[in-house]
Amino acid sequence: MKKKDIVNLIKCYAEGNDAGFRTTAYQIAKEFDQSGDTQLGLYLMSLLSDANTFVPQVQESKETYTGLQYLDKASACEEMLLLPDVIMNDILGIVNAINHHMGIHRFLFEGAPGTGKTEAVKQLGRILNRDVYMVNFSELIDSRLGQTAKNIVALFKEMNGIYQKYNMIFLFDEIDALALDRTNNNDLREMGRATSTLLKCLDLLDKDIILVATTNLYSYFDRALIRRFDSVISFNRYTQDDLLDIAEKILNRYLDQLHLKNRDVRLFRKIMKLMDQLPYPGDLKNIVRTAVAFSNPNDECDYFRRLYSAICGKNPDNLSELKKQKFTVREMAILTNKSKSTIDRELKEAL
């Protein structure tokens, strides 16, 4: 923990600056998580999201508003989101913009599937101590002529009517359902009218209402709709190093859950680098989680073999190939479950 973080934390507390307190505390939790103390980082985050925790000006309780027609409460963010600094800095910038009350309140998160857009909105709610409510598009979109546009108007009336009392963030997850290009010949005229209605409603949205939309289809978006957002955040800015670091953090979390102690980071990274292109965090999480979950509980190295098989599509039993992949004899012993002496002999015989 840096000295300046402690100073900022105490200063925010003394000034009764709840938002500043939470932002600084979140940064401290993130630093613990990045330094390898994941459990402490998650514990701090759980304290921040607990309404009964002693934090300045936190609401005493959070209610689930019932009777909403087009909005559903989103599930809570269960763990600290792993984002590269370049994106996390934008998320914290949104926190600052909201707290400055300058009328910057409509945000669009765009990027490929699995980049963490929806979870980032939940993380934003966690930092700001706000519940996130998602638009239910199955209720909103109607096959009857003109009804979808009427539903959009009703949705925004619903939002305007409850935001002050319940201090929410409204999430339009995969807003492309409404945001097709109105000039596209393949677009249905009914959805074109719906998009036009959405534009008008966004123009009239109260500046204190926080709205975040996500999309995987940004290049197909109606340009007029893009202009309605105060800021567009790209989630496609992961480098390969970012993804490798995130994969390692994901692994450590699952190993913590199973209390597995064998953590050969170098071997893990070598296996992950066998992929020409590391996938985004959503897919990374599935690959690593499956390898750990399916591993033999009596063999703490089994997840390495399963990870290799998942990535290469075959078992790690070809010593010549493992050697070409620059694995050491010790690493080959782990991957093949053979002794080093056996591997040495078999490699010599293969020459």
UniProtKB/TrEMBL annotation:
- Provide any one GO MF term from the record: ATP binding
List the Pfam families: AAA (PF00004)
Q: Which residues form the AAA+ ATPase domain?
A: 103-239
> Which InterPro entries is this protein grouped with?
26S_Proteasome_ATPase (IPR050221), AAA+_ATPase (IPR003593), ATPase_AAA_core (IPR003959), P-loop_NTPase (IPR027417)
* Keywords of this entry: ATP-binding, Nucleotide-binding
Q: Which residues form the signal peptide?
A: none
Q: Which CDD domains match?
A: RecA-like_protease (cd19481)
**According to its UniProt record, which protein family does this protein belong to?**
Belongs to the AAA ATPase family.
List the protein's name. AAA ATPase central domain protein
